[in-house]
Each structure stands twice: as structure tokens, then as C-alpha cells.
Write a structure and sequence with these properties.
Strand order of the largest sheet: 7-6-5-11-12
CATH topology of the largest domain: Rossmann fold
Number of strands: 15
Largest sheet: 5 strands, parallel
CATH architecture of the largest domain: 3-Layer(aba) Sandwich
CATH superfamily of the largest domain: HUPs
Distance between the termini: 33 Å
Structural class: alpha/beta
CATH class of the largest domain: Alpha Beta
């Protein structure tokens, strides 16, 4: 892409004039050109003042194809794109513009959502679900083959608790909401010793494959999975594989035995099987364990693989799942998207796989995100303090429908279609715009507002582009011409879209793409206000129509990468 070509040209020119101290090429502040090169390190290495170094460097950067001029400002060289840059960049903005082939079709597994069976999808799951989906889309844009995977929890203590609570329930549950109510009631009884003992016994029966218990478990699965699939469909999220942790219990126990045999794990005095990270792990030379690492107590605490009664934990089942995934997909990378509360688990999990000699352990990555809470406090299914996804989307689409009907007189069916797309985008954008490490206090009413920098704000500009193109009709293709400053600013913003997509993939962070789309929307609105499109004539009109088409292309592509559709009207 032209922006990449321009940076490579500049890097070569800097190297040619002896600027060899790892020059950084970065975006220039508004009003100071398009690209900046800081000269402080280069000046220090040559015992010169930064401004003098920048001035001399700017004078030597002449005759470049993609940069018209270079100026020194403080210790920086600020460069301005040339007319050739703008013409070439605009010409390349066609279908597939944001995509690249960096991945060369290598496989990347993205695991996300992964709720527990017996609980309906709520706002706490939503951040994980929409983040993982957007991440999978962006990784695909970078040329990888993506396997979208979800790992549903039904082998743990929380499901054993639900099964015991179901035995005591007076009525049989008909849907996932009823299951949630029974789960909440069971949690209140967990403090009772007799009830807790029944839960422990039920967990052992589940792990042992007791037929009657497994039948009960399958009934709970059926009640949970159907509405879960409906929620995913409504969210526009799909999965290539849906796995259940109860199917990995036997493999997990074998893996725990392997860890003991290789002296990676041992039984402690309480009878639990643990990976002891508090001292050197003795590994026999013949064990085949690669990447042996010494951990101390300050780094990682012990990692429990089996309880004292021999039952597995999600830690053990995660290890078994990793083996299964690599055998099935031979992935280049496997990315886990979960709450940052599990950061420690993934550090221990990855380290254990290294100690077990799994070479693929270095291909595993974890994206941890901050907690989602409500204005009234932390989300808790145990205490019944949640907003279910279905309820939230109803509120979002309702607010969107009200907004649409106040602005336009559309048929009811069209209002419903628009509201569905804009309401969903408002919710997704509110979650994706925040950097993953930050917590979110999720205010449902704020999330669905159409004012300000929201998903609907970006959608509206895309719809405006569609309206302009519809009114313009057939216009001759733009071939060449000069660009005014407003047009240049819009092209410059559009030109970096492929770099934004690449950066989002490499960093596994989505919020940068959201901020880019907001800034692009602002830039387009400024262009539209200052540069008449439909009233222009001849080549001037062709040029501006080309800019509108390019803007629509990038806005729609960026929204699609985030998992959002663009309505035809708003």
C-alpha cells in the first residue's frame, strides 16, 4: 500500500544519508506534516544539537517520490506527502483494500466466549464474545486461516452444584433463565455442610462417567445450548468448533499422570497433584522435556492439576484441550480471550506445557480484558446481579427504533431492520472502544445513545456516503487532478487504514481500530462540510465522488471487521 511504500522510501533515504541509529518513523502531530522522524538519538550519537541534526537531515531528504517537502521543528524532521502520494493512494482504494497476506494462510485458533453450561449469556460474557469475534475477523484480514472456537464449561463444580440444586427444585426448568434461578438458589445453600458434600459427591460422579449423572448433564446442556446459539446468531457471531470440557476429563487425567511421571508434578501432603513452581523442578534427562525453566515463589504459585479425590480442574482440562487443538489444527498461534482475572492461570498453564515438552507452548497467547461491572456493582450470577444479553439487546434496539422514528418516517419493517443493526453496533462499539486491560462500568442507557462518538455515529457517516453516491448517479472515473488541503487530509487518513488493520492484528488490540474509524468519520464530516460533492462539476466532481467511495469502502470494511453491519438508511 502507498503509506507503506512511503515509509520504506523514507527509511531507505535515511539509511543512505547515514541515519543508521534505528530511525523511528511516526505520525506527525496535526499541523506538522504527515510523518515525523525524531532525531534526538541520532544527534546524541553524533554529539550534535537535535535541532541542528534535524535541520541538516531535512535538507538532505530531497527528491523523494512520496514526500513533497521536509522541515525541521525542534528535534524532529516533519515530512509532507507529495501530490504523487495522494493520487496513488486514492487510486488503490478498492475492494480488499484493508487486507494483506501476512499470514500466508497459516492457522490461528481464537478461543472466546466459552460460557459455563447452565447459565444464560450475560453482559459479562458479551465483552469476551464480541472482542474475540472482532479479533478473529481482523486476523483473517491479515491473511490467516482462523478457527473460531468456544470451550463450554460443564465439568466443574458450578455445574455439579446446579445438578444438586435441580434435584431439590420443586419444578423442572423449561429454559436457561429458570436454570439461572435454580443456580442462584443453590449458591445460597452452599454454606450448608450437607449440601456442599452432595456437590462434591456429584462432581466425583460426573468425572467417573456415571450414566445417570451424565444423562442429567446432557439435559442441562440441551437447555443451555439452544438459547446460546440463538444469542450468537443475534450477535452475528459464529464458531467453527464448539467443545465441552467434560469431554476432556479422561485425557486430562492421563496428562496429569504424565506430569507426575516426568517429575513436572507431584502429590502434596494434602493429596493434591500439583506443579510446584516454588523450587527447581527435577526432570529426568530421558523425559524429553524441552525448555526447562526454573521458577521461584515470587514468580508463580503452585498449580493444582488434580484434587485430593482425583477429580480434575479446568486447569487440567485446559492442558488436555491444548494437546487436542494442536493435534487437530497444527496452529501457528492459539489465542485465548478471557477476563484478566485468569492472567495467572494462563501463565501457569503455558509454563506447565513448556515443562511437559510441548514445543507448541510458545505459540500460545492470552488476551486478558478488564472486568465489566454495573453502576450498582460487580456482575455476579451467584447473587443475581446481571443483565442478560437478550434483555440488553432489546433495550438497545428499542432505543435505536425510537431514535430512527423521531428522525424519519419509515415503514415499521425498515425501522426494525435499522434498529437491529444500529442498536447492536452501539453495544459492541461501547465494549470494543475501551482498551482491553481497562475495566468497564457498563451503563446500558449510555451504551445505546446515538450522540457523540458511538458505533451509530460511524454507521451514520457510512449511510451518508451511500446517500451521496445514490444521488450522484453515474459519474466518470477520476483520473488525475490537484487536491486541496481538506481533500489531502481525508486521503491521508484513508491511506493508513491497512496499517491500522495490521497493527490491530499484531498487537491483538481492537480499540485502535475503533478510534481510527471515529477520527476518519470526523475527517469525512469536515471534508463534506467544506467541499461540495454533488454541486461540483467535471473532474472536480469525479475526484470528490472517488473520495466518498473510498470513505464508504473503509468505513464499511472497518465496521465489518468489528462485527457490525451498515444499514442502507438511518
Amino acid at each position: 500500500m502507498t503509506a507503506d511504500k512511503a515509509e520504506r522510501e523514507l527509511a531507505r533515504a535515511l539509511e543512505k544519508i547515514g541515519f543508521t541509529n534505528n530511525p523511528r518513523i511516526q505520525a506527525a502531530p496535526l499541523g506538522f506534516g504527515n510523518v515525523a522522524v525524531p532525531c534526538f538519538e541520532h544527534a546524541a550519537a553524533n554529539k550534535r544539537k537535535p535541532f541542528d541534526d534535524a535541520k541538516e537531515t531535512a535538507e538532505k531528504l530531497a527528491g523523494l517520490k512520496y514526500f513533497g517537502r521536509a522541515e525541521a521543528a525542534g528535534g524532529f524532521v516533519n515530512l509532507y506527502y507529495s501530490d504523487a502520494f495522494y493520487a496513488e493512494a486514492l487510486a488503490e482504494m478498492k475492494a480488499g483494500y484493508g487486507a494483506n497476506n501476512d499470514g500466508a494462510h497459516a492457522t490461528v485458533v481464537v478461543e472466546h466466549s466459552s460460557p459455563n453450561v447452565g447459565k444464560p449469556l450475560h453482559v459479562g460474557h458479551l465483552r469476551c464474545t464480541v472482542y474475540g469475534d472482532a479479533l478473529a475477523n481482523i486476523i483473517e484480514l491479515n491473511g490467516y486461516k482462523v478457527v473460531r472456537s468456544t470451550f463450554l464449561g460443564e465439568a466443574g463444580k458450578q455445574v455439579a452444584l446446579l445438578l444438586v440444586a435441580l434435584e431439590d427444585a420443586k419444578t423442572k426448568p423449561k429454559d436457561e433463565r429458570a436454570l439461572l434461578s435454580i443456580y442462584e438458589a443453590g449458591n445460597k445453600q452452599l454454606a450448608e455442610e450437607a449440601f456442599a458434600e452432595r456437590v462434591t459427591a456429584k462432581l466425583a460422579l460426573m468425572e467417573a462417567g456415571d450414566p445417570e449423572t451424565l444423562t442429567e448433564l446432557r439435559k442441562v446442556r440441551a437447555l443451555s445450548v439452544k438459547p446460546l446459539h440463538a444469542a450468537y446468531e443475534r450477535l452475528g457471531v459464529r464458531f467453527d468448533e464448539e467443545l465441552f470440557d467434560s469431554d476432556f476429563v479422561d485425557a486430562a487425567k492421563k496428562l496429569a499422570a504424565e506430569a507426575v511421571a516426568k517429575k513436572v508434578a507431584r502429590k502434596d501432603v494434602e493429596g493434591e497433584t500439583i506443579v510446584d513452581f516454588t523450587k527447581k523442578t527435577a526432570i529426568a534427562p530421558s523425559s524429553g522435556v524441552a525448555n526447562q525453566q526454573v521458577c521461584n515463589k515470587e514468580e508463580l504459585p503452585n498449580y493444582v492439576l488434580l484434587r485430593s479425590n482425583g477429580t480434575t480442574l479446568y486447569a487440567t482440562r485446559d492442558l488436555a484441550l491444548a494437546d487436542y487443538r494442536f493435534a487437530r489444527h497444527a496452529f501457528k498461534e492459539c489465542v485465548y480471550v478471557t477476563a484478566s482475572a485468569q492472567n495467572l492461570h494462563f501463565q501457569q498453564f503455558f509454563k506447565t506445557l513448556e515443562l511437559l515438552g510441548r514445543a507448541y507452548a510458545k505459540r500460545l497467547k492470552h488476551v486478558g480484558y478488564g472486568l465489566v461491572s454495573l453502576p450498582e456493582g460487580k456482575l455476579s450470577t451467584r447473587e443475581g446481579r446481571v443483565i442478560l444479553v437478550d434483555d440488553l439487546l432489546e433495550r438497545a434496539t428499542g432505543a435505536a427504533a425510537k431514535e430512527v422514528t423521531e428522525r424519519q418516517k419509515y415503514p415499521a419493517a425498515l425501522v426494525k431492520e435499522i434498529a437491529g443493526k444500529t442498536g447492536l453496533a452501539a453495544v459492541k462499539f461501547a465494549l470494543l472502544r475501551v482498551s482491553p486491560e481497562k475495566n468497564i462500568v457498563f451503563n446500558a442507557e449510555e451504551a445505546v445513545r446515538f450522540e457523540g462518538h458511538t458505533g451509530a455515529f460511524v454507521q451514520y457517516s457510512a449511510v451518508r456516503c451511500k446517500g451521496i453516491l445514490e444521488k450522484a448517479g453515474r459519474v466518470a472515473a477520476f483520473k488525475k487532478g490537484e487536491f486541496n488541503e481538506q481533500e489531502k487530509r481525508l486521503i491521508a487518513k484513508l491511506a493508513v487504514y491497512p496499517q491500522v488493520v495490521r497493527k490491530a492484528c499484531n498487537s491483538l488490540e481492537i480499540h485502535g481500530l475503533c478510534e481510527y474509524l471515529l477520527l476518519l468519520t470526523d475527517e469525512f464530516n469536515s471534508f463534506y462540510a467544506a467541499c461540495p460533492v454533488l454541486k461540483a462539476e467535471g473532474s472536480e466532481k469525479a475526484k470528490r465522488i472517488a473520495l466518498v467511495k473510498a470513505t464508504l469502502l473503509v468505513l464499511e470494511d472497518g465496521l465489518a471487521a468489528l462485527g457490525m453491519e451498515t444499514p442502507d438508511k438511518m
